[in-house]
Records
---
Amino acid sequence: SAVVKSNRSGSSYHSYIKRVRIGAWRRKALANFQVGKTTMGMGWKAVNDAKPYLAMVLLQVGFAGMYIIAVASLKRGMSHFVLVVYRNLVATAVMAPFALYFERGVRPKMTITIFIKIMGLALLEPVLDQNLYYMGANLTSAGFATALVNILPAVTFVLALILRMEKVRLRSLHSQAKIAGTVLTVAGAVLMVLYHGPVVQFPWTKGQHHAGGAATAADGAAWLKGTIMTVAACVAWSCFFILQSSTLRDYPAELSLTVLICGVGSVMSTAVAVVAERANTHAWVIGFDTRLFTVVYGGIVCSGVAYYVQGVVSRQRGPVFVTAFNPLCMIVTAVMGSIILKEAITLGSVIGAVIIVVGLYFLIWGKSKDGISQVSDVSVKGAGELPLTTATNGHGSSSGKHVLGNGNGDVHVLDVETPTTNGH
């Protein structure tokens, strides 16, 4: 009996020790799981925080790629008139399904006034802006045109002042920043035109024969003509933004409006191209080469993917965050242009580009502190590059949040009064 009692006591003790050890192992495993879960959560948070930065970097690289392949195709004989037609046709085909699906119940009734405005928008953006920009880039260089187009916010700011859409208080630090930014961007553009200087050598450009930039720099007339066309493209683009903000108040269907602009712009561009290329019908023929790639790339990447990325990042971080990455496109384009197109980068272009970027950030800072427009949640986002904007009425009060788009298929996040981005 004593032996049995002793065995039972030993068995209970060993069971107790076993339960204690199992409990300790479970608590340790649970603690390790919690630590792992916390670490994983921190890792996913870091990844999510990095997504907007990575998306904007890749987006600017995508825009730079469009600049390079477009100029390469133009310099190989592709007609810019035909390029504009095909690119907008692809953009229309890509964006139409999203407009039909997402805005099937909110599309307002079309009126004569709205249609006239759409025709004006199509004339300003797909017809004038794109053709002028491509001609300017072809006569100068991809890097030069990309740098010069950073004057867009300054041009729109001046137009907004003329049209009394922008209010400036000279005693306000933010208004002073906008004025200083405008002056700096104009000064940088003038410097890029008037002063070229020696060619800046990079490790990958030593010993190579430069084309494009160096050649056109020697031809002052062609260079000046290309510069004037690029500036004129910025003026047309600025007018497009101003008219579009007015159109969206009457037709608040962003995707549908963009498809209509691209579609009508395709028709207008076709009419212009038929007249301009009437003696060269072969210009309409594109094979499986860089010309076809340029059309598809511009229509899908710069009119499809870019819109979605811009819309998501704009809602998360705001338009100023998106704008801050624009100079990266200029840098990537300059580097890629010097490697692929063998374009020369002159000292004057570098100094002028730096001044323009400084002025751009002054203007961005001044606009970001205005408190006029804030980023709003957008109900429909899918496939195009449309800037996120607040439309204001003539009395300066907010009339709603809108996503603005251009027929160019490029993305620009901007204030309804003064856009603060660039890109074609």
---
Amino acid sequence: MMADMTGSMITSVSDHSVANSTTALWEPNPTVPADVSVVTSSQSQIKDLFGLFCMVTLNLIALLANTGVMVAIARAPHLKRFAFVCHLCAVDLLCAILLMPLGIISSSPFFGTVVFTVLECQVYIFLNVFLICLSILTITAISLERYFYIVHPLRYEVKMTINLTISVMVLIWVKSLLLALVTLFGWPAYGPQSSIAAAHCSLHATHSRLRRVFGVLFSVICFLAPAVVIFSVYCAVYKVARSAALQQVPAVPTWVNTCPAKSRSDSINSQTNMIATTRTVPQRLSPERAFSGGKAAITLVFIVGQFLVCWLPYFIFHVQMSLTGSMQSPGDLEEAVTWLAYSSFAVNPFFYGLLNRQIRDELVKFRRCCLNQPTEFVRERNCQEM
């Protein structure tokens, strides 16, 4: 009898302890505040709002800066040698009008409910490849143009005609169009899907086996080859600038060189357009066309560095996603590298246009004309009334 009572007591105690342990597993942790989810949600909304603000700001800067440079070049006939710069601004303006707004929709969580049809997603990917290829190939053309202008000035003046400029632009458009058409006819395969979430419309979000080949091809044509050309060209420019500076600068105290000439331009773009070699055309080498090797090195770092910072993470990301076959990117990494690349559309007009003193002067004149026109109109109207 006692044994039965002892067994029942042990059984009840064990059941009670198991129940308590089970209950303890499901009870909320008393050390965790109850409003943790609210704080996390608030922080996430602030981060999303800040990201949306940055994307919209970049879009507006790209719109205004590229339009300003194009207006300045179009108004001044003596700036016709900046035809490739104007072409770059036109391409970047198209990116700001067509590509960047679609990027905001696909990247921002505030548009998470937006759904693209398969055709709309294909159009977005087509514009992505087409406009990015246009912009990068135009930057490459600008680098080659500067190389011939600096290293081979006589050949540049003879060969660089309006027909050659138009031919190079047409070649850039044809090459970009052919590469982008692959995304419409030979590459994307979404299976039975009729619609795709805007956040999932990406270069690597496809079920086609060809995306690996396309990812490598896209990176080689639009990044690797242009990066090699740009780096090689500006290295050659640096060597010429250093050689010209060593041959032209007399042996004077170092404190004299700390006072730059007033006629020298303070812009990166005009500095690279003001070098000549004494070996080819010594009569063209003048203080206005030569600058020190240190400034040439700064030009090399700025131009090549800006290109690599904007585009290297983007292409590394897409090559990795294409080769690994992954369908989903980790966290917000894709949005970060995409908008780092898109920032090039807002930065390019500053590096290749607005930092040039001649273009800045034209913009100042245009602004003065716009500000003086209302005043002159009022004066004419008052004279007519009198």
